[in-house]
Design a protein that fits this description.
CATH topology: TIM Barrel
Shape: globular
Number of domains: 1
Order of helices and strands: HHEHEHEHEHHEHEHEHHHHEH
Mean pLDDT: 85
Structural class: alpha/beta
CATH architecture: Alpha-Beta Barrel
Largest sheet: 8 strands, parallel, barrel
Radius of gyration: 19 Å
CATH class: Alpha Beta
Low-confidence stretches: 1-15, 305-312
Length: 312
C-alpha cells in the first residue's frame, strides 16, 4: 500500500510539472535529515521519499544510542540508505566509537556516516573534532563506503569565536588531504543557509583554495517564518539571517510559510551556468516537518530520486 501511495503521488506530480527545470535537475538525489523523535511521526517513509533517498539521522546530545540505531534500522528496512551523525564531542572514547559503528553495521547495515564536532561546548571524553574521529581509522577498518564532514558557508563561531574562517578553513584543508588517502567517498554536508550569494562565494573560495570535495548544500525546508528565525539564531546562521528578517518586515509575507524557492532557483541557475560548481546535491533540514518538506520537494520536481549507488 505504501508503494502504491507513493506511485499515486508520483502520478499527481507528473500531472503538475515542476515550476523550474533547473531546480528539478538540482534536486536530483536530494537527502533528508531526521531525528528519532521526528521519524516516529512518519508512518512509512515510502509514502514520502523517492527510492534511494539518503536519510541522515541527527544525533542530538542526550539521545540514547539505542534510539539512534533503532531509527536507522527502521529507515533502512524501508529501503533507504542511512547516514547517522557521529558527533565527536559526545563520544566518550575509542571503545564507544567502535561500539556505535558495530551496532549500526550489525543492526542496520550502515556503511556511511556524517562526522562532525557536535554542538557541545565541553567534550564528554577523548574527542573534540571530526578530524580525531578520522584519525582513528575506525571507519576505514569497518569498511565504510562514504564519509561526509561538516561545512559552514557562513562560518561557525563555536569554532572561530572571532568571526573569522581561519579554523574551519584549516579543518577543511586537512579533510581534503584525508579524502585523497581514503577509499571512502567524501563530501561536505553544510549547515542550512537562506541566501545564495554567500553560499556561492564560499563554495568558489574553497575551490580556489584547492578543496574539491563535492558539497551537499543544507537547505531549510518550508516552515513558519518564526520557526526558521528561531533555528537560524540557535544554529548561528549569520549573513543570510537578514533574508528572513527582511521577509518578516514585509506584512504581505509575514504570515505566509517560507519556502526555499528563491535560494534553490539561484543556486540551480548558477550550477547550470557553471557545471564545475562544487555543489552537487541538496540536503534538506525539514524544520517545518518531514511530510511538508517531502511534498514540497516532489512538487518542485524532486520525485525522481536516484538509487544510492548513483548518488554523488
Amino acid at each position: 500500500m505504501a508503494l502504491l501511495n507513493f506511485r499515486r503521488r508520483e502520478a499527481a506530480s507528473a500531472a503538475k510539472p515542476p515550476l523550474n527545470r533547473q531546480v528539478e535537475a538540482f534536486l536530483e538525489g536530494y537527502s533528508m535529515e531526521v531525528m528519532p523523535r521526528t521519524a516516529e511521526k512518519v508512518e512509512d517513509f515510502r509514502e514520502l521519499l523517492p527510492a534511494g533517498t539518503r536519510v541522515y539521522i541527527a544525533h542530538i546530545e542526550g539521545t540514547p544510542i539505542e534510539d539512534m540505531v533503532a531509527t536507522a534500522r527502521r529507515v533502512a528496512r524501508e529501503g533507504y540508505p542511512v547516514m547517522p551523525h557521529f558527533p565527536a564531542r559526545i563520544i566518550k572514547d575509542r571503545a564507544t566509537l567502535e561500539d556505535w559503528i558495530a551496532r549500526y553495521q550489525g543492526e542496520a547495515g550502515v556503511d556511511q556516516a556524517l562526522l562532525l564536532a557536535g554542538g557541545v561546548e565541553k567534550p564528554h571524553g577523548d574527542f573534540h573534532s571530526s578530524m580525531q574521529l578520522l584519525e582513528t581509522d575506525a571507519f576505514g577498518r569497518a569498511g565504510f563506503k562514504r564519509l561526509h564532514v561538516a561545512g559552514h558557508p557562513e562560518g561557525n563561531r563555536d569554532i572561530d569565536p572571532d568571526g573569522s574562517r581561519r579554523n574551519v578553513d584549516d579543518a577543511l584543508r586537512w579533510k581534503q588531504k584525508f579524502s585523497e588517502t581514503t577509499d571512502a567517498q567524501m563530501a561536505i554536508a553544510t549547515q542550512f543557509a537562506f541566501d545564495s550569494k554567500p553560499i556561492i562565494k564560499w563554495a568558489d573560495a574553497l575551490q580556489e583554495a584547492g578543496i574539491t570535495m563535492p558539497i551537499h548544500i543544507g537547505i531549510a525546508g518550508p516552515a513558519k517564518l518564526q520557526t526558521l528565525i528561531k533555528f537560524a539564531i540557535a544554529c548561528g546562521v549569520g549573513p543570510s539571517l537578514k533574508v528572513l528578517q527582511k521577509r518578516a518586515m514585509d506584512v504581505s509575507k509575514l504570515l505566509l510559510p517560507y519556502e526555499p524557492t528563491e535560494v534553490l532557483a539561484a543556486l540551480a541557475a548558477h550550477k547550470a551556468a557553471n557545471p564545475d560548481f562544487l555543489i552537487e546535491r541538496v540536503h534538506f533540514f525539514p524544520l517545518g516537518g518531514i511530510k511538508t518538506n517531502a511534498q514540497w520537494a516532489i512538487d518542485n520536481g524532486g520525485a525522481s530520486g536516484t538509487p544510492a549507488a548513483k548518488q554523488g
